Amino acid sequence: MIISAFLSCLAILLVKVGIAAPSTEEVVDVVNITPKVRSYSLSIVNSTSEEETGVELLSRVVRSNFCQIPRDYGDSEIVCQCFPSCTICTQTCVYGHCFKSGGNSKKYECRDGQWTPSQPFEKCYPYLDMTVTLMPGGKMRCWCNFMDHGPICEIECCHYEDKSAVAKAIYRYSGPGQWTPQLPFCCRCGSDIALVAVPGSFSGYNQVK
Where is the signal peptide (predicted)? Predict the structure, then answer.
């Protein structure tokens, strides 16, 4: 009787402090593999030579119990839901990029180590020229590979011929051929990089309205 009463009191106490029985629902692990944020520096001062350095922020290593998920896939974000029976991933290209096969987002499913489609995770290619060409007298450092906006550049122009120096400032890509504020004399929009064709129904993706 005493033991029974003690157990009853303990059960009531556990309920009051909020300890519940283990849930019978399936646990879903959500894995988010973000793209690398890339930076590079260029300088053309009193010469026509360029120096470039690259710095990359590595994404974390990710593993699934059922399927191999890439550590990083360049110019895209991969979000995976890991269920007990399968893994479902969505790959989305970074701003201004799309797949050569069309679109900017695709879903993949893996069961027992087999992906559908059989060749998952495509490379993304730029359909917008968001680059900057540096001219004599210029210095810049840019950051790119964002999901929700274009590159950001820190640009400074030294005195060159009849042009006055321009103090270091931040410039943001704001649309095809446009930067905010307007780029200074020591650089120009674009660098004639190779772009992929974008289907008409997809032409508005990732462009500033």
Answer: 1-20
**Angle made by CA atoms 101, 123, 40, in degrees to the nearest 5:** 135
Per-residue pLDDT tens over the stretch 106-160? 999 998 888 888 888 889 999 999 999 999 999 999 999 999 999 999 999 999 9
SS3 breakdown of the chain: % helix, strand, coil, rounded to 5? 10, 40, 55
Q: Are 88 and 76 in contact (CB under 8 A)?
A: no
Which residues are 109's β-sheet partners? 88, 116
Alpha-carbon distances of 196 from 129, 151, 166, rounded to whole Å = 10, 19, 35
Q: Can you tell me the distance from the alpha carbon of 107 to that of 81, in angstroms, rounded to the nearest whole number?
A: 11
Secondary structure tally for the chain: helices H, strands E: 1, 15
CA distances from 138 to 96, 153, 157 (A): 25, 12, 5
| Count of structural domains within the chain | 2
- For the record, the structure tokens of 167 come out as 């103090």
The domain spanning residue 84 has which CATH number?
2.10.70
Report the distance separating Cα 169 and Cα 156, nearest Å. 7
Residue 12, classed as helix, strand or coil, is: helix
The structure's pTM equals 0.72
**Bridge partners for 99 per DSSP:** 124
DSSP H or E stretch at residue 176:
none
Query: Which residue in this structure is represented by tokens 């890439």?
Result: 70
Q: Which two tokens stand for residue 118?
A: 């059989």
C-alpha 30/C-alpha 75 separation (Å) is 20
Strand partners of residue 88: 81, 109
